[in-house]
Amino acid sequence: MDGLQEFAKRLAEIRRGMRDKGLQTLLVYDSGRHNFLRMNYVAYLTDFISVGPETMLVLPLEEAPVLYLSPVWDIARAQEESWVTDIRPFKEFWSRLAHLTGKVGIVGREVLSAGLHDEIVKSLGQAPVNAKDVIENIARCKTDFELARLRRAAAIADAGVKALHEDAHAGLKEYELAAIVEYRMRSLGAEDNFGMVVANSHNQALHPPTDRVVQPGDIIIGEITPCIGGLFVQICRTMVLGQPAPVVQEKYAILKEAMGLGMEAAKTGAPASAIAAAINGTLTDAGYEKYCRPPFMRVRGHGLGCGSSAPGNLEDGNQTRLEKGMTFIIHPNQYIPETGYMTLGDTVVMTAQKAEALTRSSWDIYVKD
Amino acid sequence: MIFGRHSVLKRGCSTWVKEQMPQEEFEGRLEAARREMARQDLAALVIYGDNYSFADLCYLANYFPKVRGGIAVVPQSGAISLLLNIGSRDVPFAKTLTWVEDVRASNQVGGDGVKLLAEKGLDRANIGLVDSGQGFPLPQLEEMKIGLPHVQWKACHSLFEPMRLKKSARELSALCAAGKLLQEIGAGAQSFVKQGRKEYEIVADIDRLARDKGAEDIRILAGATRLNPPSFKQSTALGNHWALYLAVQHERYWAEAGRTFVLSNDATLRAAYEKAREIVGQMAAQLKPGGAAAAIDETARRALGEIYPTASMYGLGNGIGLGQWEAPFFSADDARQVGSPSVGAATLNGNMTLALRVCFETEGKLILFGESFRVTATGPSSLLSG
Fold this sequence. Notes:
The complex is a heterodimer of chains A (369) and B (386).
Chain A: H1 3-21, E1 25-30, H2 41-46, E2 55-60, E3 66-69, H3 75-81, E4 86-89, H4 93-98, E5 104-107, H5 114-124, E6 129-130, H6 132-139, H7 144-167, H8 174-187, E7 192-193, E8 196-200, E9 219-224, E10 226-228, E11 231-232, E12 235-241, H9 246-265, H10 273-285, E13 301-303, E14 327-330, E15 334-336, E16 340-342, E17 345-350, E18 355-357, E19 366-368
Parallel strand pairs in A: 1-5, 3-4, 5-6, 12-19
Antiparallel strand pairs in A: 1-2, 2-3, 7-10, 8-9, 9-12, 10-11, 12-17, 13-14, 14-17, 15-16, 17-18
Helix pairs in contact in A: 7-8, 9-10
Chain B: H1 23-39, E1 44-49, H2 55-61, E2 70-75, E3 81-84, H3 91-95, E4 102-105, H4 109-119, E5 126-130, H5 138-147, E6 152-155, H6 161-165, H7 169-192, H8 199-212, E7 217-223, E8 241-250, E9 253-262, H9 267-284, H10 293-304, H11 308-313, E10 317-319, E11 326-329, H12 332-337, E12 353-362, E13 365-376, E14 379-382
Parallel strand pairs in B: 1-5, 3-4, 5-6
Antiparallel strand pairs in B: 1-2, 2-3, 7-8, 8-9, 10-11, 10-12, 12-13, 13-14
């Protein structure tokens, strides 16, 4: 299915959802702050990632959609990249708004400022209803179109890990380690990266890199998340500069076991919490129950947004059923008092029966002599 | 205004160099803020910031959010608190970036903000809300306001603007460091920009250079006919010309530049680029204490003639500092685009810092030149070349 067919299909499904809710028009907003922690609804419906500050897709039930955006100079890019063909300056949105009739839904309240929301309510003469479910419901399972991008992003994530294995060495600063990964992935087309790569003999947690100089024997942990076409794939891996102490291998083996059991628990139809239970159970059996809770750990993975962030966080109590086509990261990343924080995780897609990893790097701890 | 693809995470070097920006700098700012709070009869401020718009939060706390946002609660007296949308295990790292001792984790800043304000006895107070970037997520803000029905809220989005307009000696030093870094990146970029290379490969090289030099963040937009953010869709092989916009954040402060690479002897393109440089030079000549901000725009209007409307679409300039776009703005529309209620200042002061740029098309190709400057008594001083 090509992009235009995909767009037409999404539009038809959204309009079905609008009819079910009695909506005449849907206002879909984005602030130009693309973020994998939530869905970018405008990107989902246009294939255009705005740079902001104001992007509003007006989607009537019957007429063609119109994309209003600022800055004006970015309209040319939108015309080339977007599935929507009618693209206008954001300031024209206000006159359109004043002429809308019937029940109006809004999607993207999470990134709407209070001031802009108030202006919309005033111009519209009604408070639009929060209608994000209309999009979230149809986006929860990735299509082949999205999976093609995710597989490309996954290959780039693996390349980022490989670059780290090849080029990491003592004497670099943490931010230079992070730059190694970033560079390889950007060179392959990655648009963005939620990337944290840090090194220490005893890491407390993942965090953005500092200017600390990497030492022989350091454990390097990474959470690497490249983006292609707005879609993110995450991978978490651990490496050591020099032969690790036996306790590091011993404790890392617990993460590998937890990862395996987490993958096994990820069965289509099972609740998302089953994965967290499998991972936490492994660590509890190893004597680390208290380290499975805050302030050490909380979730064992999560959806990756832009599209949908379904099934949400892999944590106790999340009864969301895993469905074919859902994509998310499973990561039994763990702080262990004897070794510090270590990382392991793959992005998976749910098949008809089970989870299939999109990322391919070995789960083994990578030892670089 | 030139907006770039906002990164999902501030993932560059994240440190606080206390020798360059010591705690006493922030204590002075806090005193000034509290004087203004007293004048406005405010018992406290709630300052919102996120990784997109962190300037006011950072001005007081030195903290800049890496992913999601958070608030600072600043009572008229007593300790400041930071309530950040981070995990509890991230608190120790967050504390390395701020002098504020009370740093708390939350995944519901609105609801937990209610509890924090009540804990400080501020649940019936006059509170100023500072959200100059208009980024406070609506559901969280609504939750906070509903949870505190007896609080009198006052919009104070511009409260820090007069303080931030005039840079301190330490801020100027930080801005010069950011400018120097940008100069090095721009110089290095020359060796990457070659005909036949894919655009995203060149962007990767520039990004790597910036990261290796310790940049906290970088914005890159580039293209032959328009400014594009990094995208896998931009895989075109470079021709004989490329316009490049760069903004870099270093130790919290931004510097901005624009350059055009003409990779042939095309006289028209070379002349157009020279014209852009000259116009920015003429605009910069207006940067003097007591000068009118409007004179910069007027200079550009005269020099650009019929292409002024195109150039002004990109914005001809703005203040720069903790914000990539901050007062003074040259037009109300520029200010509105970044959530500022006004242009900020009509008259220039010594030690203001501004980014100036000229962007237009020649024969269908984009020409861009931009530079960041400091206003001094003896005229403009480039932050890039000192």
